[in-house]
Amino acid sequence: MDPVALQFLPYPHVFRGERRDGIHIPWPDRCGSCNRQCESAASSGVGLCSYGLNYARIDDDLLVAGVVARDYPTHLAAHRRMVKKLGKKTIVLTDLRAVIDAASAADARFASEVDDAKRAIIEEYKASAGYLDDIVRALRPDVQRSLAQVHDYRQLITQIVQNVNVIVETAEPGTEFEVALSSAAPELRAIYWAARLLESKLEAALYLMYPEKIDDPKSKKNFRLHGLVTKYSRIYGSTFQSKDLKVVTAGGSWGSLHANPDAVGVIPHAFLDNAAKYAPPGTTITLWFAEDEEHITFEVESFGPPIRPHEFTQVFDLFFRGEAAQAQSVEGTGFGLALASHIACVIGAQLSVNQGGRKGPDGTVITSFTAVFPKGPLSA
Fold this sequence. Notes:
Elements: H1 3-6, E1 13-15, E2 18-20, E3 46-48, E4 54-57, E5 62-67, H2 77-86, H3 93-127, H4 130-146, H5 150-171, H6 177-182, H7 186-209, E6 221-224, H8 225-235, H9 237-242, E7 246-251, E8 256-259, H10 261-264, H11 266-278, E9 284-291, E10 295-304, H12 323-327, H13 336-347, E11 350-359, E12 365-374, E13 376-377
Parallel strand pairs: 7-9, 8-13
Antiparallel strand pairs: 1-2, 1-5, 3-4, 4-5, 6-8, 9-10, 10-12, 11-12
């Protein structure tokens, strides 16, 4: 209840167990020795206590009481005596109900304002660079236990990749590795790209554990975003092929970014991973590039599960998955896009998601994930 509105209530009332006089009518003397039976009322209608006084509950915190509505319909003798005793200090039901309605409206407005203020504070906090850092600090003990074996996994993956390199280079000495790999046995190519994919996922997970590495000056260098996206697109090539997904590139980008490329790579990685998971088999994934004097834009467009209107503000929240996405038999944690959003916040990029009107197979909708990077040195 709005504390300001309480100051102008004309009738006696009880707010959170405290009795307060109204600005026009104080508590009657008779209420000083009663057993407060009105305060146990649960209904919102106008009631009558055994002493002949009326009351009405506004909400769990507020009760208007200690008044006498002379036109209240009752045969209780105590009520008639109160009407006679108080005379001009009585009121009519119309006035009482007007006060009830006004108090209820003020209560609703105040609750709405409080909810709006809470949402604004939460959204401001979620948009800050410290949002994910605070979550990481809270989860750090659990995350450390979960990632304790990451180093061992990375060593194992590195060994697998090196072994594939040896096999491929031995089979075709002097041939460029990518060319030789393309003609290697399908099983060998699958092992190589699966290892590279897992390697990239583990590298991304480390930024959740060590967010300070995102903007590490020692890791910054100039690089082209187009080349970085191409790297991750090739890593997902085997996954795309297994679902018969066609990947096309449109637009162009020739400018460079100055940042930690591994950290920036988490963003296209998350976009491509999302498309690989949810795009229906046999559809197309489009990688869009655009550039102006100040920005480089990258976008992944594919068919995906519909996002409900109230979910758009939550898409980049940690551990969030939309209802339609959860309904599909696709594993996911709601981790990748959240980490991408946090990295974007740290380096000064902007992420967004949109859905158009085009419909795809199985109830999917054309979905675009967009990242806009400022050219030149990126800073928090």
